[in-house]
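Example record for the data management plan.
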Amino acid sequence: MLPYLLVSQPLTHFFSKTTYSPSTSSPFTTTTSATTSSFATSFIQLVMMYDDVANDKENPFPGQLFNQPTAPGTPGTDVYHGVKKDYTGSEVTAKNFLSIITGDADAMKNIGTGRVLKSTENDKVFINFVDHGGVGLIAFPHQPYLYKKDLQNAIIKMHNTSMYVPALVECQP
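Corresponding structural encoding:
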């Protein structure tokens, strides 16, 4: 699957002791890792996803996505249904990603929903990025990629403009 981005704020905590349960949560409101815990109920979510899998001709369940196998005869949980997507397809770029996380609404005007992170020094920010990458870069469906120095500069800008206390950035290959 090509990238999706989840930006959430404010969170009363990043993780609880409860293990992620796909029957009660969507991986788009946590992460797709089975070891990740669930979030508090107070959060705002922004979703950026290339959205190329659910309706792909090779998907045996058109319009649906499942993140874990189930026993034969046991229905799975469709984690795609109801996902509110802010940015999809050609809108999924490194430039847009940086504009979203740094709160640059002018740069996102007339793109997707136009929503950007509007957090303050009182908010905890969790960014979950799932895609391919390599040493010093995060790959996007189309180049240019996101390079380490650009992500670092965006996080420094977020810090300098008091956009979080604290922030957690998680990248999953």
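Summary line stored alongside the record: The chain is about 10% helix and 20% strand.
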